[in-house]
Amino acid sequence: MTGAKVTNTLLIFSIFKKNWFMYNFLVPIDFSHTAKNAAKFAIDMARDLNDVQVTLYHLLDPIAAGSDGTPLDIDLDDRIKVAEVALSNLATELGAPANTRTIAADGVFLIDDLAEFVQQEGIDMVFIGLTGASGIEHLLMGSNAIRMANEAVAPVMIIPPDAQYRGLKAVVFATDMKDVRISTPINQLKAFLRISKPALLVMHVDKNAQYAESASYLKEKADLEEMLDGFQPIFHFIPQDDFVEAADQFATAHQVDCVITVPRNHSFLEGLFAPHYTRKLAYHTHIPLLAIHE
Fold first, then answer.
1. Residue-range domains of the chain with CATH
2. Which strands sit side by side in the sheet containing 23-28, from one edge to the other?
3. DSSP state of 61
4. What is the pLDDT of residues 84-137, one digit of tens each?
5. How many other C-beta atoms lie within 10 A of the C-beta of residue 170?
6. In Å, how far are 19, 184, 217, 260 from 158, measured between CA atoms?
7. What InterPro entries does the record point to (predicted)?
Protein backbone atom coordinates (compact mmCIF):
# COMPACT_ATOMS: atom_id res chain seq x y z
CA MET A 1 0.00 0.00 0.00
CA THR A 2 2.81 2.40 0.85
CA GLY A 3 4.42 1.96 -2.56
CA ALA A 4 1.13 2.59 -4.31
CA LYS A 5 0.58 5.79 -2.36
CA VAL A 6 4.05 7.07 -3.26
CA THR A 7 3.51 6.28 -6.93
CA ASN A 8 0.18 8.09 -6.98
CA THR A 9 1.70 11.07 -5.18
CA LEU A 10 4.52 11.28 -7.71
CA LEU A 11 2.06 11.01 -10.59
CA ILE A 12 -0.09 13.80 -9.19
CA PHE A 13 3.00 15.95 -8.60
CA SER A 14 4.18 15.33 -12.19
CA ILE A 15 0.83 16.38 -13.65
CA PHE A 16 0.65 19.39 -11.34
CA LYS A 17 4.18 20.48 -12.27
CA LYS A 18 3.52 20.29 -16.03
CA ASN A 19 0.42 22.44 -15.73
CA TRP A 20 1.89 24.96 -13.27
CA PHE A 21 3.21 27.08 -16.14
CA MET A 22 1.04 28.04 -19.07
CA TYR A 23 3.94 27.65 -21.51
CA ASN A 24 7.18 25.65 -21.39
CA PHE A 25 10.28 26.48 -23.45
CA LEU A 26 13.18 24.08 -24.09
CA VAL A 27 16.65 25.13 -25.27
CA PRO A 28 19.26 22.49 -26.19
CA ILE A 29 22.66 23.70 -24.95
CA ASP A 30 26.11 22.68 -26.22
CA PHE A 31 27.71 25.84 -24.76
CA SER A 32 28.47 27.28 -28.21
CA HIS A 33 27.81 30.94 -28.96
CA THR A 34 24.92 29.84 -31.15
CA ALA A 35 23.24 27.88 -28.36
CA LYS A 36 23.84 30.62 -25.79
CA ASN A 37 22.23 33.18 -28.09
CA ALA A 38 19.19 30.92 -28.55
CA ALA A 39 18.97 30.56 -24.77
CA LYS A 40 19.16 34.31 -24.27
CA PHE A 41 16.40 34.80 -26.85
CA ALA A 42 14.16 32.25 -25.12
CA ILE A 43 14.84 33.69 -21.66
CA ASP A 44 14.18 37.27 -22.79
CA MET A 45 10.97 36.13 -24.49
CA ALA A 46 9.87 34.21 -21.39
CA ARG A 47 10.53 37.26 -19.22
CA ASP A 48 8.37 39.37 -21.54
CA LEU A 49 5.46 36.93 -21.39
CA ASN A 50 3.50 35.53 -18.47
CA ASP A 51 3.67 32.06 -16.92
CA VAL A 52 6.57 30.69 -18.97
CA GLN A 53 9.27 28.31 -17.76
CA VAL A 54 12.55 27.81 -19.64
CA THR A 55 14.52 24.56 -19.50
CA LEU A 56 18.20 24.56 -20.51
CA TYR A 57 19.04 21.01 -21.61
CA HIS A 58 22.51 19.57 -22.22
CA LEU A 59 23.08 16.10 -23.66
CA LEU A 60 26.49 14.69 -22.79
CA ASP A 61 28.58 13.00 -25.47
CA PRO A 62 28.47 9.19 -25.13
CA ILE A 63 32.25 9.11 -24.58
CA ALA A 64 34.23 11.83 -22.81
CA ALA A 65 37.34 12.78 -24.78
CA GLY A 66 40.25 15.16 -24.43
CA SER A 67 41.17 17.91 -26.89
CA ASP A 68 43.15 15.38 -28.94
CA GLY A 69 40.25 12.95 -29.11
CA THR A 70 41.68 10.52 -26.56
CA PRO A 71 38.92 8.88 -24.45
CA LEU A 72 38.94 10.04 -20.82
CA ASP A 73 38.15 7.80 -17.88
CA ILE A 74 35.66 10.07 -16.12
CA ASP A 75 32.69 8.82 -14.11
CA LEU A 76 29.34 9.64 -15.75
CA ASP A 77 27.89 11.05 -12.53
CA ASP A 78 30.86 13.40 -12.24
CA ARG A 79 30.40 14.54 -15.84
CA ILE A 80 26.72 15.22 -15.21
CA LYS A 81 27.55 17.25 -12.08
CA VAL A 82 30.08 19.34 -14.02
CA ALA A 83 27.56 19.95 -16.80
CA GLU A 84 24.87 20.92 -14.31
CA VAL A 85 27.19 23.49 -12.73
CA ALA A 86 28.01 24.88 -16.18
CA LEU A 87 24.29 25.12 -17.02
CA SER A 88 23.57 26.86 -13.73
CA ASN A 89 26.37 29.36 -14.40
CA LEU A 90 24.99 29.99 -17.89
CA ALA A 91 21.52 30.64 -16.50
CA THR A 92 23.00 33.16 -14.08
CA GLU A 93 25.05 34.78 -16.83
CA LEU A 94 21.94 35.21 -18.99
CA GLY A 95 19.86 36.59 -16.12
CA ALA A 96 17.40 33.70 -16.25
CA PRO A 97 14.31 33.83 -13.98
CA ALA A 98 14.39 31.81 -10.78
CA ASN A 99 11.99 29.21 -12.22
CA THR A 100 14.45 28.26 -15.01
CA ARG A 101 15.33 24.56 -15.03
CA THR A 102 18.77 23.18 -15.94
CA ILE A 103 19.07 19.53 -16.94
CA ALA A 104 22.14 17.53 -17.97
CA ALA A 105 21.60 14.00 -19.28
CA ASP A 106 23.52 11.30 -21.08
CA GLY A 107 22.37 10.06 -24.44
CA VAL A 108 23.39 9.07 -27.95
CA PHE A 109 21.16 10.81 -30.48
CA LEU A 110 20.44 14.49 -29.81
CA ILE A 111 17.25 14.82 -31.85
CA ASP A 112 15.74 11.53 -30.66
CA ASP A 113 16.52 12.32 -27.03
CA LEU A 114 15.10 15.83 -27.39
CA ALA A 115 11.92 14.51 -28.99
CA GLU A 116 11.43 12.07 -26.13
CA PHE A 117 12.06 14.79 -23.53
CA VAL A 118 9.58 17.12 -25.26
CA GLN A 119 6.84 14.50 -25.12
CA GLN A 120 7.54 13.46 -21.53
CA GLU A 121 7.75 16.98 -20.14
CA GLY A 122 4.98 18.62 -22.13
CA ILE A 123 7.28 21.15 -23.81
CA ASP A 124 5.41 23.74 -25.86
CA MET A 125 8.29 25.20 -27.89
CA VAL A 126 11.90 24.29 -28.65
CA PHE A 127 14.50 26.98 -29.39
CA ILE A 128 17.47 25.97 -31.57
CA GLY A 129 20.28 28.27 -32.62
CA LEU A 130 21.22 28.61 -36.28
CA THR A 131 24.95 28.94 -36.78
CA GLY A 132 26.32 31.63 -39.03
CA ALA A 133 29.45 29.60 -39.75
CA SER A 134 30.27 28.11 -43.11
CA GLY A 135 31.46 24.63 -44.01
CA ILE A 136 30.70 21.52 -42.00
CA GLU A 137 29.57 23.39 -38.86
CA HIS A 138 26.90 25.19 -40.87
CA LEU A 139 25.72 21.98 -42.51
CA LEU A 140 25.53 20.05 -39.23
CA MET A 141 23.66 22.75 -37.34
CA GLY A 142 21.36 23.28 -40.30
CA SER A 143 20.66 19.56 -40.41
CA ASN A 144 19.85 19.41 -36.68
CA ALA A 145 17.55 22.42 -36.91
CA ILE A 146 15.69 20.95 -39.88
CA ARG A 147 15.41 17.51 -38.28
CA MET A 148 14.06 18.94 -35.03
CA ALA A 149 11.62 21.14 -36.93
CA ASN A 150 10.39 18.12 -38.87
CA GLU A 151 9.97 15.84 -35.82
CA ALA A 152 6.49 17.31 -35.30
CA VAL A 153 6.67 16.90 -31.51
CA ALA A 154 6.48 20.64 -30.76
CA PRO A 155 6.87 24.00 -32.54
CA VAL A 156 10.54 24.82 -33.14
CA MET A 157 11.87 28.38 -33.07
CA ILE A 158 15.09 28.60 -35.09
CA ILE A 159 17.19 31.51 -33.84
CA PRO A 160 19.75 33.12 -36.22
CA PRO A 161 23.19 33.87 -34.73
CA ASP A 162 22.69 37.63 -34.26
CA ALA A 163 18.99 37.60 -33.38
CA GLN A 164 17.92 39.56 -30.33
CA TYR A 165 14.50 39.43 -28.74
CA ARG A 166 12.79 42.80 -29.12
CA GLY A 167 9.23 41.70 -28.59
CA LEU A 168 6.77 40.09 -30.99
CA LYS A 169 4.97 43.06 -32.46
CA ALA A 170 4.32 41.50 -35.87
CA VAL A 171 4.63 37.98 -37.28
CA VAL A 172 4.04 36.57 -40.75
CA PHE A 173 2.44 33.19 -41.40
CA ALA A 174 3.73 31.84 -44.73
CA THR A 175 1.21 29.42 -46.24
CA ASP A 176 0.79 27.61 -49.56
CA MET A 177 -3.00 28.10 -49.38
CA LYS A 178 -3.73 24.44 -50.12
CA ASP A 179 -6.40 22.61 -48.13
CA VAL A 180 -5.93 25.07 -45.26
CA ARG A 181 -8.58 23.45 -43.08
CA ILE A 182 -6.60 20.21 -43.12
CA SER A 183 -3.01 21.40 -43.47
CA THR A 184 -2.95 24.37 -41.09
CA PRO A 185 -1.89 23.42 -37.53
CA ILE A 186 -4.43 25.85 -36.18
CA ASN A 187 -4.11 24.86 -32.51
CA GLN A 188 -0.34 25.44 -32.45
CA LEU A 189 -0.74 28.65 -34.41
CA LYS A 190 -3.44 30.01 -32.13
CA ALA A 191 -1.54 29.03 -29.00
CA PHE A 192 1.47 31.02 -30.17
CA LEU A 193 -0.66 34.01 -31.17
CA ARG A 194 -2.50 34.01 -27.84
CA ILE A 195 0.65 34.10 -25.76
CA SER A 196 2.53 36.63 -27.92
CA LYS A 197 -0.41 38.78 -29.14
CA PRO A 198 1.32 40.13 -32.30
CA ALA A 199 -0.13 41.67 -35.44
CA LEU A 200 -0.68 38.77 -37.85
CA LEU A 201 0.27 38.94 -41.53
CA VAL A 202 -0.58 36.01 -43.81
CA MET A 203 1.62 35.62 -46.88
CA HIS A 204 1.12 33.48 -49.96
CA VAL A 205 3.63 33.33 -52.82
CA ASP A 206 2.64 32.21 -56.31
CA LYS A 207 4.27 32.93 -59.66
CA ASN A 208 0.81 33.13 -61.25
CA ALA A 209 -0.51 36.58 -60.34
CA GLN A 210 -3.97 35.68 -61.66
CA TYR A 211 -4.33 32.99 -59.02
CA ALA A 212 -5.15 35.73 -56.51
CA GLU A 213 -8.51 36.17 -58.26
CA SER A 214 -9.27 32.47 -58.66
CA ALA A 215 -12.17 30.75 -56.92
CA SER A 216 -9.76 28.27 -55.38
CA TYR A 217 -7.59 30.94 -53.73
CA LEU A 218 -10.57 32.99 -52.55
CA LYS A 219 -12.11 29.89 -50.95
CA GLU A 220 -8.88 29.01 -49.13
CA LYS A 221 -8.52 32.62 -48.00
CA ALA A 222 -12.11 32.69 -46.68
CA ASP A 223 -11.53 29.41 -44.82
CA LEU A 224 -8.34 30.69 -43.22
CA GLU A 225 -10.02 33.99 -42.28
CA GLU A 226 -12.72 32.00 -40.50
CA MET A 227 -10.15 29.79 -38.74
CA LEU A 228 -8.23 32.88 -37.56
CA ASP A 229 -11.30 34.78 -36.45
CA GLY A 230 -10.39 37.05 -33.56
CA PHE A 231 -6.75 37.46 -34.64
CA GLN A 232 -7.42 40.03 -37.41
CA PRO A 233 -5.16 38.51 -40.10
CA ILE A 234 -3.99 40.76 -42.95
CA PHE A 235 -3.53 38.80 -46.20
CA HIS A 236 -0.75 39.42 -48.73
CA PHE A 237 -0.49 37.71 -52.12
CA ILE A 238 3.00 37.93 -53.63
CA PRO A 239 3.32 37.15 -57.36
CA GLN A 240 6.88 35.83 -57.36
CA ASP A 241 8.62 32.65 -58.46
CA ASP A 242 11.06 32.11 -55.59
CA PHE A 243 9.28 31.37 -52.30
CA VAL A 244 12.31 31.74 -50.02
CA GLU A 245 13.41 34.97 -51.68
CA ALA A 246 9.89 36.40 -51.46
CA ALA A 247 9.49 35.40 -47.81
CA ASP A 248 12.83 36.94 -46.92
CA GLN A 249 12.07 40.22 -48.69
CA PHE A 250 8.56 40.40 -47.22
CA ALA A 251 9.73 39.79 -43.66
CA THR A 252 12.39 42.46 -43.96
CA ALA A 253 10.14 45.04 -45.65
CA HIS A 254 7.37 44.64 -43.05
CA GLN A 255 9.78 44.48 -40.11
CA VAL A 256 8.28 41.28 -38.77
CA ASP A 257 9.73 39.68 -35.66
CA CYS A 258 9.12 36.06 -36.69
CA VAL A 259 8.29 34.02 -39.77
CA ILE A 260 5.91 31.10 -39.16
CA THR A 261 5.87 28.20 -41.61
CA VAL A 262 4.54 24.65 -41.91
CA PRO A 263 7.41 22.51 -43.25
CA ARG A 264 5.23 19.87 -44.91
CA ASN A 265 7.49 19.37 -47.90
CA HIS A 266 10.60 20.77 -46.18
CA SER A 267 11.34 23.00 -49.19
CA PHE A 268 11.26 26.22 -47.19
CA LEU A 269 13.53 25.06 -44.39
CA GLU A 270 15.91 23.22 -46.70
CA GLY A 271 16.04 26.26 -48.95
CA LEU A 272 17.25 28.37 -46.06
CA PHE A 273 20.25 26.10 -45.67
CA ALA A 274 21.11 25.68 -49.35
CA PRO A 275 24.50 27.17 -50.31
CA HIS A 276 22.78 29.66 -52.62
CA TYR A 277 21.14 31.35 -49.60
CA THR A 278 24.06 31.27 -47.18
CA ARG A 279 25.33 34.72 -48.15
CA LYS A 280 21.81 36.20 -48.18
CA LEU A 281 21.10 34.88 -44.69
CA ALA A 282 24.09 36.84 -43.39
CA TYR A 283 22.19 40.05 -44.16
CA HIS A 284 18.96 38.96 -42.47
CA THR A 285 20.13 37.09 -39.38
CA HIS A 286 17.77 38.92 -37.06
CA ILE A 287 14.51 37.19 -38.07
CA PRO A 288 13.69 33.92 -36.24
CA LEU A 289 11.74 31.16 -37.96
CA LEU A 290 8.97 29.23 -36.21
CA ALA A 291 8.15 25.80 -37.67
CA ILE A 292 4.76 24.39 -36.68
CA HIS A 293 3.01 21.17 -37.70
CA GLU A 294 -0.38 19.71 -38.43
1. 22-159 (3.40.50.620), 170-291 (3.40.50.620)
2. 101-106, 52-60, 23-28, 125-129, 156-159, 289-291, 258-261, 170-174, 199-205, 234-238
3. P
4. 999 999 999 999 999 999 999 887 667 788 888 888 998 999 998 876 544 444
5. 16
6. 25, 19, 29, 10
7. Rossmann-like_a/b/a_fold, Universal_stress_UspA, UspA
